[in-house]
Amino acid sequence: MEIKFLEKLEKNSSSLKYRITFFFVFFLLAVFSVFIITSLLQVNTLTRFLGFHYAMPAVNSAMELIDGDSFERIARTMDTSDPYYIETQQKLLEIKKETNVMYLYTKAQVEGTMFMYVIDGSDVPGGELFSELGDSEDLAFFDSAAMKAFNTGTTLIGTIDQQEEWGALISVYAPIFNNAGDVVGLLGSDVDATEIVQWIRTQILWQVGIVAIFIAVGLTVYISVIRLVNKNFKFVSATE
């Protein structure tokens, strides 16, 4: 009887430790899940706020200037002396300065994800931030919102896009339509996200510290409870 009692006691003890371990693992997963979800929501909310309040006004103003058919003509003729090209470039630059965005530009599709700059209002022609008519880039290496805006014909706010050449940017992309209703290009507006990236990193470090404290407390409680269970099992076994 005594052996059966001890076997039953050991079985109950093992079951209790299993439940405690399961609860501790569940606790860790819950903490990590809350941390990850909170971080993603913060980044998404902040990105959309900056895109909507800073990059979108430039896009809305610029779209009033863009004539899809004239844009198609410039992309086809590559004529920088065209009056429409000259006038629109100057006006885009004025909008860029007024809205304080970092880049304001238009692009046309060359093939697939390869696009070329058409009218760039990011700087004066020849300036440091200016992209010449015909300069090309592969949008496959940029935020997916660019190609999605072109393919769906909808204006989209992108996520934070970190590029070695351009830095950290938050962009808004709007499709350019010709008179036939076809999407013939993209208008992009970028805002500098360097300070935001630094802020996000600081927040993540702070949140990691909070998670570490929760884990440390949970691990301390877990070890203490397991030791207590083992101690009680040994005490009961010794008295039998």
Characterization of this structure:
The protein is of the alpha+beta class. The protein has a single domain, classed as Beta-Lactamase (2-Layer Sandwich), CATH 3.30.450.20. The protein is 60% helix and 20% strand. It contains five helices and six strands, in the order αααβββαβββα. It has helices at residues 2-63, 68-77, 83-99, 144-152, 194-239, and strands at 103-111, 114-120, 136-138, 156-163, 167-177, 183-192. The protein has a six-stranded antiparallel beta sheet, with helices on both faces. Strand 4 and strand 5 (167-177) form a beta hairpin. Helix 1 packs across helix 3 and helix 1 packs antiparallel against helix 5. The longest helix has 62 residues, at 2-63. The chain is elongated. The termini are close together.
